[in-house]
Structure prediction request, 180 residues.
Amino acid sequence: IEDDMHLYIIDDFITTHNSFGAILSCAEPSLDPEFKACFLRTNLDDFKAGGGLIDSIKQAYGNSVHFTTSKKPRATFKNGAFIECMHVADQTLKALEDDFKGTQYDMIYFDELTNFNWLTFCFLFSRNRGTAKWTNKMRATTNPKKNHWVRDFIDWYVGIDGQIIPEREGVVRYFFNAGR
Prediction:
């Protein structure tokens, strides 16, 4: 989104943010009753605030989802597929292990990736192991800062001007995490 405020306009001239695109990316996969998505923020109130992610999910899917609001707000589709909203305030390994013990998601979405540390990002790869037909997707919104691990991670794709290098857009690259 090439706007200083990262806004864009959808139907009926409603202004929204790039997170709305992530919400819509669940539309097709949610047709599979096994599909499980997890949207992450570092603050739970960001989900619940007026105009936050929960309001955006309601706006996008309307009556086709049932909401439960709790420590882990969840939008459940009529077939059982769901989008769960979790906050990760404590990014220590122990807290991550406690919070995500036994979880398996087909899609993990980091809202504002630069708010997460490298350990959290890598640990959550181990939770990206769902059973749906459309699985193993990790997505994020970000405005990478020059001296942040996210900028280093995506650096191959980004030119000196800060824009995506056209011939590298969509190219799949592999990486491994040496050590832990």
Summary: Residues 34 and 131 are 6 Å apart (CA to CA). The radius of gyration is 17 Å.
